[in-house]
Design goal:
alpha+beta, Alpha-Beta Plaits, 2 helices, about 25% helix
Amino acid sequence: MLVVIANNLPPAVRGRMKLWFIEPRPNVFVSGVKDNVAQKVVEYLLEHCPAQSGLLVFCRKPEAPGYRIYGLGDPKRQLVEISGMQLVHEKDL
């Protein structure tokens, strides 16, 4: 499973995402693509989206804790790793 949350995606990227993902809310995409396809989607997003996109990507992986988080941009959220577990830390306002 792959979940993509963005602040603002370029129109071309958003159009491509709509081919394989459902979009329950604007700029929130969910799909059950296979792991090898999910990795290619993550690579595509990181390559074609500017930092202003504010991406958070949650990707399923077979080993513990069961997911991998990728981030791009958005200084309000910081990815931290504690004891091998990735977490999203929201900075205090």
